[in-house]
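= Tokenised fold =
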Amino acid sequence: MASPGTARAQSRQMLEDAGYTVRTESDPAAAVRLAAEHRYDAVLFHTDLQSARGADRMRSLKLALAGTPVLALCSPSDPIRPSNALRHGADDYLMLPLDRHELRTRLRRILEMAELDSRVAYFQDQVSKRTSTQTLKAQSQSMQNVLERIDRVAPMRSTVLVVGESGVGKELVARSIHFKSTRTRAPFIPLNCAAIPPNLIESELFGHERGAFTGAHVRARGKFEIAHGGSLFLDEIGELGSESQAKLLRVLDEREFMRVGGDRSVRVDVRVIAATNADLETLVRDRSFREDLYYRLKVVTIRVPPLRERRPDIPHLVETFLSELSRANAIALKRISPEALQAMQRHTWPGNVRELKNMVESILVSSRTEIIEIDDLPQEIRETRSLPRSGGIAAGMTLAEMERELILRTLEQTGGNRTHSATLLGIGVRTLQRKLHTYGIDVPSTRRRPRRSSRHDK
């Protein structure tokens, strides 16, 4: 029987003779780490799948590989191993000792299947991305203004800055701009700047040359190269470090860059759409964001309103999510009762559209009836009530007086709960505390009705 070392040496020689670049590793744990850190076209894996440790290693490898095909090498003395290999995630298996022709044939087959799966996933993703912009249809005036602005800026080459709270749908706005532009046949590439470690962000953006840093075994294209001819969406742009900001500014101005570790300029044609939920003007004043980059990005600015400012859109959003999620989860399409829909429209949705979609998915899965009723909704949404209509606000009142009255009525509704009141009002707790002090509203620590002190009581 061929030992693991012999199988590694034989397979490496056979594959290198066929023109493949091969890396071998004797330690299974190290192989899993390599798979997580680098991209490989395929992996040949030889371990004892009869043992719990061997099976765990195979599962860990599949998790680390994120879609890379695995060819398991199995001993002919153990007839159970091929089925074990497939059960634990291998895409195919090959019996030892190795046959040169069989090795190349099996490897080519799993590579072709992986390529086919990748193409299918790509086209499914493109269809999903195009249809996902359906959630941008609007009844509210605030969102109709956004859609009109998208239509105006889409044909342009200008950079766009999309601003808004977390979860409002900034990436959907960026996708809509891309798919309505002349770049629609080219890639739309998203990158969350906050999700990439600072030491890797430049490699993600601009790519790197072989040997540029430890672990850079091959040249890699960055997001700018991949997005050539299309659009690059940079989410959480305020999280970029100062050095990366300077390099991004150069690309925007000169439309060229150098890969990390490279000495040759690469020219690209990419439209940059950036997004943030931070106040970039404040970051500029604090000198944590470049002023010149800020003005270069905000050639066109689109503010996406929070969901509490576009309540008329909630019925359409709910129907869209019900249809989309029912199809994705193979669940029969359900309807929603008017009472449940009204409760959703009363809620303030601090997590915005993302929170709404997650809630719809949760009740879609848990509800056992064809119609989603108000009792199927989470408690915090069921208990949201409209503010009382009687008393308080009248013609002739100043805005400050109206705001004070609204705060008082909200506090009465929540029994003096500052956190709940702030959520209903769509402001932070600290902001509410400042307004309580400004308007002389006394809210005892125990939950009682707030004291309606006059402004002269302060």
Observations:
- The first helix runs from residue 4 to 17.
- Residues 386-391, 453-458 have pLDDT under 50 and may be disordered.
